[in-house]
Amino acid sequence: MVKNSKNIISILLVMVLLCQGCGHSADGVTGSGTAVTDVAGTSLTDSIRSDSGTDNSSADNSAENISGTENTGKDSSNTGKTDSEKADTEQPNTDSSNTNSSNTNSSNTDQSNADKSNTDKSDAEQSNTDSSVIEEQNDTTKENNTMTPEISEKDFYIAMISDEIFARMKGKSYKDDCNVPIEDLRYIHILHKNLEGNTLEGEMVCHEIIAQDLLEIFEELYLNNYPIERVELVDNYDADDETSMTANNSSCFNYRCISHTTKISKHGLGIAVDINPLYNPYTKIVDGTRTIEPAAGAPYLDREADFPYKIDENDLCYKLFIEHGFQWGGSWTNSKDYQHFELPDAVADELRAKYK
């Protein structure tokens, strides 16, 4: 009986083993089982699990590897995309900033270039304008140089009376009884044009107070080609007024007193000037008799007639002397001295008082 019981147990064990060999254990069916140990002492469940675990582990590992690879790839892709999107998000801003900066710089550069271009254009136009103005001025200068003579300090100047000049004057225009100090007189050198347009040298002695005025007047007359036939020291004619005037010589200082008086004349003071006297004579009627000086100037008493060297109120010479404070003898009432320009009586009286 006992033997039979052992046999039955053995059979049951074999059946259990057979069932487990087919992979269907009670645990597999019920979901719970008891560990069975084989003869060698190894758990068959562990062995099965080991075999199954190897496959499952491979599968799991494969799945994990695949999943991990995909996840990593996805994450990497997502990360890349995110970074890329971030980069794209920031890059446009950066690009936009760079673009804006570039555009700004470009705009500034363009504006700068435009401004520079405009400035260059403006400068070029200004340069052209300035060049045009300079050319016009040069043309005007050339034209003026063609139309008007050139002058230098050697042509127009004022000097003290040198010993050489005084030697020419002594005993003639500067008489022995002359009480006007030679230091108060000045020698002026000028250029002038005659009626034919020839340039001639001129010289004159005058009082120092009118020397600069005379120099400026004669310069202006010369530049305007105003005709003056002669400008020589009256000493060249032995200080004889009639001879000098007949030669149409323009002069200033010649010491003498007013007729029938002891008053120094304005020519004697060196503050009166005669210009082109032959064509602009002095005239006065005394007791029904007309006096003409120079006598050769009689044909030129008709001031309505047209002739060269004539001085009237429309004449440049007249205008310049008046501008410089002189008075014209052609405006006198009791007599006419068309050649004569002088300073006012007040100045003459002051000088006379000084030289008594």
UniProtKB/TrEMBL annotation:
Residues in Peptidase M15C domain copies: 260-343
Region (Disordered): 45-149
Keyword flag Ribonucleoprotein: no
Keyword Ribonucleoprotein appears in the UniProt entry: no
Name of one Pfam family that matches: Peptidase_M15_4
Keywords from the UniProt entry: Carboxypeptidase, Hydrolase, Protease, Signal
InterPro entries: Peptidase_M15C, Zn_M74/Hedgehog-like
Leader peptide range in chain numbering: 1-25
Gene3D superfamilies: 3.30.1380.10
Any one GO molecular-function label of the UniProt entry: carboxypeptidase activity
Top-level taxon of origin: Bacteria
Bias type Polar residues, positions: 45-81, 125-135
Biased composition (Low complexity): 93-112
Protein name (database record): D-alanyl-D-alanine carboxypeptidase
